[in-house]
Write a structure and sequence with these properties.
Structural class: alpha/beta
Largest sheet: 8 strands, mixed
Low-confidence stretches: 320-347
Strand content: 15-25%
Oligomer: single chain
Strand order of the largest sheet: 16-17-18-15-19-20-21-22
Helix content: 25-40%
Length: 672
């Protein structure tokens, strides 16, 4: 038997799937619970439909299909609908957060979280097949999940099932019928990505389907159900030769063969009469014709879409909002106040989370009233979103604001030095995202600027102030695990698709972005002690930055610390302290921990709930570093006891030596 697996992605794909399987069941006499009437089961000899349905052995037939969406709403309609008993629960996969019409979220961020579980389920379905033909993928071009996640899935399918056919049924964005203004971006990106991975694509024009419903079916206001039932008739006709005995296109590979190398006119006849949904829009007929054509007329549609893309991208419309391919946003800085006169100038992802985290603190102590970015429109959007009163289009303007107490700088790494010095020269206290600067020389320059201007300066390594870290310090002080013999910290994930992590000009690399969390943990345990020796090994990626790095630090008394970081592979992301009397373990999320294991006993430290969606894991934990700044200012301190300048300098020094051994250099290293 030559089986086909259908994959329905995103809202459009899932809703198309709902109507397609409804029609398949009617055509094959399968009831909504998956069972077939005994009369038909006994009298029927044609089992071709098992290319699309699997027999459980108990008289029930289950679709060979996967439904995937990044948010549960649409799939929940399947779970609770008439055909809820037809599908296996494991075949309905949904996430918790949608792609928000954003290709990058579907492909690079949210989609990455569920891709492995989807592929695992596809493998299980494939294992149940005796001779898998290939995949039918249903999706839209314009949605975030339909574009981004589908392209990710197609890439992975090409790796795992390289020789199997992959056919697409895609909803093409119509010029007059649009659900999102960014559809041209999504469509161009997904087309470019899937070009190498799709064998044949059947395009469905939303506007054409609307016109058929209005003109031919006399439906004044067509609903998605009307559209999808019409599409399901097309899909049914195309796949009829796969599900019923026929002479033409009995294999998926024959579609591309008959359409591409040999596109001349040919007719296949299937003797199964068309089936219609009871109470639907179509009348019962004895015969129907479906035509598939490989024509250059499609070029007009692409040209129209390309024109829209060019118009929008020429003005960089929505690029800052969408984070296409994670383009780094304009540098920004933020401000908080210890006297209720707070200001924040920030418009990046981390700055959004920082703003949300501050809302978990007392508003009289932490209030944001200003935002600045190089692109004033960017700042205005951020201010509107977070109800911030003042907006500045440059950091110079912000630096001159007399009401500002503290500036939070959340820019990309190479801008930390210049932006930090600008605000400190204006007598502003500064909280700078990690790493404090690109190298030890720049760190020392920032510290000197803070001393010269008598202002507060702290490296924003938020992990230092989490309740878990505070508890670790207490346990070590109380000799809970005895003398520390070894510390190990791992942090890594495949992140090379994000430019700010992979590009040398943007300060990318595993050490500066991820390794710093491991090192700060090690120096927290060893209380800022300088290691006797540093040995680094690893590998660099094509851009010249470190992809994976392993550091072995040797301290006095033969104590060891191992730091492993990577932007090319998933690591355990945990940390362990081994002492003479026991162990302390941070089981996961070591950079933003909420749990701890002490000699096997687990301890939980939950974080406050966020009032808005966050970009990063456990981001409400940013509240603790903000409160640390406030407490330091109230005490008149210029540096934080929890993250002193000596620790920032030590971390930068170790990072410099590790990069030297790995052969990684930045432009900032060549400045004397």
């Amino acid at each position: 038997m030559r089986e086909c697996i259908s994959i329905h992605v995103g809202q459009a794909g899932v809703q198309m799937g709902n109507t397609c399987w409804e029609l398949y069941c009617l055509e094959h006499g399968i009831q909504p619970d998956g069972k077939m009437p005994e009369v038909k089961a006994i009298g029927g000899h044609d089992d071709s439909f098992t290319t699309f349905f699997s027999d459980t052995g108990s008289g029930k037939y289950v679709p060979r299909a996967i439904f995937v969406d990044l948010e549960p709403t649409v799939i929940d309609e399947v779970r609770t609908g008439i055909y809820r008993q037809l599908f296996h629960p494991e075949q309905l996969i949904s996430g918790k957060e949608d792609a928000a019409n954003n290709y990058a979220r579907g492909h690079y961020t949210i989609g990455k979280e569920i891709i492995d579980s989807v592929l695992d389920r596809i493998r299980k379905l494939a294992d149940q097949c005796t001779g898998l033909q290939g995949f039918l993928v249903f999706h839209s071009f314009g949605g975030g999940t339909g574009s981004g996640f589908t392209s990710l899935l197609m890439e992975r399918l090409s790796v795992d099932f390289g020789k199997k056919s992959k056919l697409e049924f895609a909803i093409y964005p119509a010029p007059q019928v649009s659900t999102a203004v960014v559809e041209p971006y999504n469509s161009i990106l997904t087309t470019h990505t899937t070009l190498e991975h799709s064998d044949c694509a059947f395009m469905v024009d939303n506007e054409a389907i609307y016109d058929i419903c209005r003109r031919n079916l006399d439906i004044e206001r067509p609903s998605y159900t009307n559209l999808n039932r019409l599409i399901s008739q097309i899909v049914s006709s195309i796949t009829a030769s796969l599900r019923f005995d026929g002479a033409l296109n009995v294999d998926l590979t024959e579609f591309q063969t008959n359409l591409v190398p040999y596109p001349r006119f040919k007719v296949g006849i299937n003797y199964q009469p068309p089936t219609v949904v009871p109470g639907g829009d179509l009348a019962k007929v004895q015969r129907a014709v479906c035509m598939l054509s490989n024509t250059t007329a499609i070029a007009e549609a692409w040209a129209r879409l390309d024109h829209k893309f060019d118009l929008m991208y020429a003005k960089r419309a929505f690029v800052h909002w969408r984070h296409l391919l994670e383009i780094v946003e304009a540098p920004a800085a933020g401000l908080i106040s210890h006297e209720g006169r707070g200001h924040l100038a920030s418009a990046g992802k981390i700055s959004h989370d920082f703003t949300v985290a501050l809302r978990t603190l007392a508003p009289e102590n932490h209030k944001i009233v200003a935002v600045a970015a190089r692109d004033v429109k960017h700042a205005e959007e951020f201010a509107k979103k977070h109800n911030i009163r003042r907006v500045y289009g440059s950091y110079d303007e912000l630096a001159k604001d007399p009401d500002i107490d503290v500036v939070y700088i959340g820019t990309i790494h190479p801008y930390h030095l210049a932006t930090g010095k600008l605000f400190m020269k204006s007598k502003k206290n500064v909280l700078i995202e990690k790493p404090l600067a690109m190298n030890l020389r720049e760190v020392q320059e920032l510290i000197s600027a803070a001393q010269d201007n008598s202002v507060f300066l702290m490296e924003a390594i938020w992990t230092r102030f989490f309740p878990v870290t505070v508890e670790v310090r207490r346990l070590l002080e109380q000799d809970e695990v005895g003398d520390v013999q070894m510390v190990r910290a791992d942090l890594g994930a495949p992140l090379t698709h994000i430019p700010r992590l992979a590009e040398r000009k943007l300060g990318g690399g595993a050490l500066l972005d991820l390794g710093i969390y491991c090192l700060q943990f090690i120096f927290t345990v060893f209380n800022g002690e300088r290691p006797e020796s540093i040995q680094a090994t690893g590998h660099c990626i094509d851009t010249g930055v470190d992809g994976t790095a392993v550091l072995v630090l040797k301290f006095s008394g033969n104590r060891l610390a191992i730091c492993t970081c990577s932007i090319t592979m998933m690591l355990t992301c945990d940390a362990v302290i081994i002492g003479t009397k026991g162990t302390i373990k941070i089981p996961d999320h070591m950079w933003c921990p909420t749990s701890l294991e002490v000699n096997g006993k687990e301890m939980q430290f939950p974080l406050p709930e966020a009032s808005m969606p966050l970009n990063f894991t456990n981001s409400t934990g940013l509240r603790y570093e903000a409160e640390e700044v406030r407490q330091c200012l109230l005490k008149g301190l210029k540096e934080s006891p929890g993250m002193p300048w000596a620790h920032s300098s030590l971390i930068a020094d170790v990072l410099d030596e590790a990069r030297r051994q790995l052969g990684v250099t930045y432009d900032q290293d060549n400045i004397q």
